[in-house]
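DATA CLASS: polypeptide
GOAL: derive structure tokens

***
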Amino acid sequence: MLFNSLPFYIFFPLVTLGYFLLPHRFRWLWLLAASAYFYMAFIPAYILILFATILVDYISGLAIEKAEGKRRRGFLILSLAANLGMLGFFKYFNFFNANAAALAHWLDWNYPIPFLNILLPIGLSFHTFQSMAYTIEVYRGNQKAERHIGILALYVLFYPQLVAGPIERPAHMLPQFHEEHKFEYNNFADGLRLMAWGFFKKLVIADRLAQLVDSVFTFPSSYAGPLLTLAALAFSYQIYCDFSGYSDIAIGAARVMGFRLMTNFDRPYSARTISEFWQRWHISLSAWFRDYVFFPLRRALLRGKMRLPGWLNQALPTLITMLLSGLWHGANWTFVIWGGLHGLYLIVELWTTRLRERLARALHLDSVPQLRAALQTFSVFLLVSFALIFFRAPSLAAALDYIQRIGLGWDASHVALWFAQLRVTLGQNHPIATVYPTISGAAILALTGLQILLLETVQFLQKEAPLERVLAGQTTLVRWSAYYFLAVNIILFGSFLPSSFIYFQF
């Protein structure tokens, strides 16, 4: 079930109302049934995959807690193998099979393994990582095994963050499912505000930018360098508003019922370094890879018998972690390259810290901190946007072709063509173009730019406090003016065509 669909607009109030009307002892069952229904709205049979892994993790958690020595590790490996095996089969079998077949063809070998017609279960990567976090934390002794299988199932299936996160930790969520949440107006109001803000990001910015991005990335040979550059930068905002919009709706829907989900985005495009970007972007996934991949890899290298140069002890785990992060996002070399680029960004950033400081002093940027901060932020945004070309392109060849074409067609003779193409790509189904058929593409782009400026203004205000707290501290007139303004923007400029969220494919 999509958040931006009519069924959800009926589902959400009914589930919330039922949750508060039922006695506390039945609420877990109500939420579990509602979450299962929410997931089954996509492909009903795939709910069995979740239930199978939940059962394995439930038994493994209890066994790990009781066992000692190597038996504890054995039960952990059983749980991880079940989760990763399911993920590997559905998401990566055909990817690795295709690469193995290509290698066999190159070596002129016979390769008999056929491709399978497998449809990836929605959100498999997200709930797999959340399940793995549970058994890993039980193994590490940071979490007691959950005795109530229904609560553990709800931890994995909780509908707001089931499909695209945030990826929660058991210590944060499991106690909340045992607590009795009473209706609180502040939670209700804060949750609805967050949901409205998420819908603004998704419907008004992400889905409008998608029309430009999809057109240009589908037929890059039809466009000149300026529009290719614009589409690449637009995709940076599209994917951010699409994914952070989902997270806001998820966090808001949970908040209405009294649940607290972790913050998943924190103004990532205000980051001044790539490492800071990853502290602000998809925070739950970044923290997962940091705790369960990067730190264990680094400890293994430091404790290993093979002595590595000091610079490799940091660089190698960083690169491996980011490559795996890229592969987590999708079974395509484009995602691996995207992750590898970010790994290289982080390594170069680490190695050039002193050099960049000396350069800043030589250019006297340290005496103009605002200018230096602006240049750093803009540089990070450009690096992120460049890497996202690989993320968005359908293949590695398409990404390289796209990058090559960016340098073409910047001369003044193409200006009229640029604006004509902009009018077509941005004007599709746009309400402004419907009312004013002769409106230029530049005007529509300016309107979208103003909406992005509104986004950045609100995020600037969020530097000191979350959105709900910023609004709660205002007068009634200011608050309701903001609500009406947001609602009018969504109604007038939102795209209400059926559209999934980008991260559903992962």
Q: What stands out?
A: The mean pLDDT is 88. The longest helix spans residues 70-106. The two ends are 16 Å apart (CA to CA).
